[in-house]
Specification:
By secondary structure, the chain is an alpha+beta fold. The protein has 4 helices and 10 strands; from the N terminus they run αααβββαβββββββ. The chain starts with a helix and ends in a 13-residue tail after the last strand. The N terminus is likely disordered.
């Protein structure tokens, strides 16, 4: 969620709390049926958000496309340059070509390395040397879009956390509290395919 949206939401939440504190009698006398309806509506809303295919997290079997590719062409391992800057991407439902770009938390970064240079666990999640991680920094949610070519490390431009993509996006420096969650991949019919969901929840500390 963008900081402005979060601020608006927080403000609305505070207004709501203040409003509730000022009118306890009104709350206490709220009709029980009405309360049940409100609760059901909230639950339904949350359910719809989680089920929205555009915003839901990448799923096993999804294809992967380059960010901004209007043609929605599924990526192959050879589309990802060796030991080079990250490629930003989205997952796409192969059945109806729905691109899961409704949440910025779904954006991926892809990199390709010599598989023999990957740490064992990272290698087990790679497809012909291609690894995928969330592009969202685990510190306060900036996009990890810097690449340190000599060191072959990812870097976050906001507070300079550094991650090693060859070793599970391990944090080497900076305030990021944890690794970038990985998205395990495989190759099917020559295309990159999501093998399993993210290895950990995608998200960040509150700024
Ligand atoms: S948001 Fe990435 S280091 Fe702070």
């Amino acid at each position: 969620m963008r900081s402005a949206e979060r601020a608006t939401q927080d403000t609305n939440t505070r207004k709501s709390v203040v409003s509730e504190r000022r009118a306890p009698d009104k709350l206490h006398h709220m009709d029980a049926d009405r309360r049940r309806l409100l609760t059901a509506g909230l639950a339904l809303g949350l359910g719809l958000a989680q089920d929205d295919p555009v915003s839901s997290r990448p799923r096993a079997g999804d294809l992967v496309i380059r960010s901004g590719d209007a043609s929605r062409t599924p990526l192959s391992p050879d589309d990802i340059p060796f030991a080079s800057m990250q490629t930003l991407a989205w997952a796409m439902d192969p059945a109806d070509r729905t691109v899961r770009s409704g949440s910025r938390l779904n954006q991926l970064l892809l990199l390709r390395f010599d598989a023999t240079k990957l740490a064992p666990e990272t290698r087990s999640r790679a497809a012909e040397g291609v690894v995928a991680y969330t592009s969202i920094c685990t510190h306060t949610g900036c996009e990890v879009d810097d690449w340190m070519a000599n060191e072959q490390l990812l870097s976050c431009p906001c507070h300079f956390s550094m991650f090693d993509p060859k070793d599970g996006a391990r944090v080497l420096d900076g305030p990021a509290p944890r690794v970038l969650p990985a998205l395990p991949l495989k190759v099917v019919d020559g295309k990159l395919v999501v093998a399993r969901p993210f290895t950990a929840p995608v998200g960040f500390e509150k700024g």
